[in-house]
Amino acid sequence: MKSLVLVLILGLVSPLIRGGFPDCETTFLHPGQTNCIDETDGSAHEMDSTWTNSQCYRCHCSSTGMTCCDMIFPPSNPNPTTCTVVYDYQTCQANLVSRDDPSLPC
After folding, report:
1. 46: helix, coil or strand?
2. What integer pLDDT is reported at residue 5 of this predicted model?
3. How far is CA 63 from CA 21, 46, 48, in A?
4. What is the SS3 assignment for 13?
5. What three-state secondary structure class fits 51?
6. In this structure, are residues 61 and 49 in contact, taking their beta carbons and an 8 Å threshold?
7. Quick one: three-class SS letters along 61-82?
8. What's the confidence (pLDDT) of residue 20?
9. Model-level pTM?
């Protein structure tokens, strides 16, 4: 329970510092269920475990359910006509790049 509280606190404080709120989803376990199933890839996770899935959601499995929060916070886009946000799921980061040449930062 302490680890769940810590994960939730860190999950809420970190984006506040960066200026946003995390996109979180909670799935409650059914009676008798002994693990959490990550719907992204179908993997099973033990109670009191925490992981980051391939879509950059940080998840925690507890005896009551699974909570997953998006760890990518897109930067504000001051000029949407010339810039776009590109998501990197390997590094769990979002980058603002030129629409004309995505290899260039915006």
Report:
1. strand
2. 37
3. 25, 9, 8
4. helix
5. strand
6. yes
7. ECCCEEEEEECCCCCCCCCCCC
8. 59
9. 0.70
